[in-house]
Amino acid sequence: MKRLYITYSLIVSFAxxxxxxxxxxxxxSKSTSxxxxxxxxxxxxxxxxxxxxxxxxxxxSSSAPTIQLTIQGKVAADALAGGEVxxxxxxxxxxTNINNSLxxxxxxxxxxxxxxxxxxxxxxxxxxxxxxxxxxxxxxxNALIEKAGSDNLLNSDEFFGVNITPLTTAxxxxxxYNRFPHATDEEYKTARLSLHPTKAMEQAAMxxxxxxxxxxxxxAQTKTTLTYLLDANLAGTHLEALRVTYDGELRxxxxxxxxDPSQVNVSxxxxxxxxxxxxxxxQYLLTFNDDGTGxxxxxxxxxxxxxxxxxxxxxxxxxxxxKGKTIEITFDNPIVYETExxxxxxxxxxxxxxxxxxxxxxxxxxxxxxxxxxxxxxxxYMASLNIPTYSIEKEDGSVSYQxxxxxxxxxxxxxxxxxxxxxxxxxxxxxxxxDDSFVFSENGQVTQKDLLTQTEVQKxxxxxxxxxxxxxxDIWISHKEPTGFSVFTNDDGYVQHQKLIKRAPVDMTExxxxxxxxxxxxxxxxxxxxxxxxxxxxxxxxxxxxxMLLDGHTQVAMSNDARTTRDMLAVIDGKYYMxxxxxxxxxxxxxxxxxxxxxxxxxxxxxxxWPYWAFFGFNEMTTNQPLFFSSGDLLQNxxxxxxxxxxxxxxxxxxxxxxxxxxxxxxxxxxxxAGIEVCEYLLEENCNExxxxxxxxxxxxxxxxxxxxxxxxELSGYLRSWQGPEKILSVPRGIKQTFYIYPDNxxxxxSVTGCGGVLNDNQFIVPPLTEGCDIVVNFKQ
Length: 781
Prior knowledge:
mainly beta
């Protein structure tokens, strides 16, 4: 059965930047069993098979005290009719059938020693539908008994989460592949709060797509819908590929989930108090008062624009009314943002761009927003954030554009749902966030350091529940993390969701810094190499500059007129937690921005990952075919007449690029300091040896320019690389290179020498190179 009527029923959960969905649940017979990993109490994946179609129940010992609970729920796919649900609680496995109405009923007779442990249920179809597999992670039996009441029978009216849906499956998969501990009810709640704000909902939509669209098939790399989501790289790749090809389709499946009352539930209980509203790239604080008034505190309401922190602070009162699932918010005064860049959607061109002379500064304004509640769980809502109307003004005040902004998927959490923490260890140590650090003392004083200006101030602090109140700075502690806490902060009207990391003793020598550094589950950070010769570079780029140590935990990297300071805060389980600050070199030096990053290091420089901005050249090892890559553009030299073919890729995973032009993935399967191996294959297929190609790194060309002009490399009109003073290029071997020299107004080209090149007007033509060389450009007034 391939065309299915989906009947979800769970509380929707929040979901993340990067991660996954894609193709298919195709009609053919899939494997007859699958082994699903569970997390142990230590948060490690168990290798023991947990679920298969042939699994059997293991009764509890009759001599040990037990606790009994009956659960009655539903599953969310027609293909599961006649299948089974297997519950795993501690060492016990209990199996029950799914009837033709997609209902199940199970009596759990749980040993008392396991009654306080969260547990897992996996539903699997039979015969040709055994590829359909949904899962759910439940709180402990003890916690569920409290919801069930005196009859010890729990149904969806008492706890909507007894229904096993694509959403519960996506939440369980994210908790599993991130290895979030969930051996206790507190860890279970922490794991749910640790989920990405939108990823689970989006991946649930991908499962719905598999179940309802007969033209979409399960990827060849996996066997069931559950194992598909458990492969974070695969699922993430397919999700991002769908965004590239048709992001609206993803929204359609989210709306399909939200419109079906058998899939999600939104109660009529009143909203009251303070809530965090978190989208993919922005966070807000909303206070709903019982009298219909409220207050919004935020940086900016859309991630389609770039704004500076100073111009984006908003603290504005509003009135609000709830009509069913819709919350309409009208501001006391229009909200106005000053911005230098704005896109209407992910795929559109910008309507206000600082590169355009007519749009040096634009004002974005709107008077209301609308929240459409999509689903509700026991500790948060999922919602669609809509900005119905807005206008963009030029500096002269004229309105240049009016439209609706694309809705954003968001999660809404009451701060009352944050997990209470023992803060006895708060005192006498340094806590570091993105732009600030704190040292709390028990006498109610705190030293707050601004990491941008390096200025310190003394403040008083008070604690109300999970709310640390400082003068002009608020910290709400959401939950505990391995290095400290996950927190939401309000810095005088600017809201951020960030880590508050406890500085640990770190003593790193120069050799400890040498290696290739890659971000841990963060798409937007370039891999970079810290080399033993005290140079550093972006992945395969030639050296960008030099580095040195300031002390046992701080490294400084220099590149022309820019400085990056990396302050190592803690090292846990092979992950490096550091605060990375960047700014232009000056006296005195003032940092422009800081942020907490989580890195992994490869001592052998063999980690893979496609950079966003790096510009480098390669040669194919067997044919010597030249190749250039930059920011998703791939150019290959196809013929002796120096024609370059062009292909546009989009990064869909750290190691994968996707081309909507032909639906193919370009995966970096291995990398070293000398070169890379790539594999090209269709999105729904596997990489095989025939599709692999090896490339060696290109030659290094050093460019030196004096003041008075700029320098550019152009390839068949497709790719231009602007170069400033003292830049270095990586270029392929064996091809003619054409460089363009552009004098500034009032200047002309005095001389261009090096690499055997010939100057022709403003073109400097270099013959095919066999070794690196230097180009020196001089301008004159």
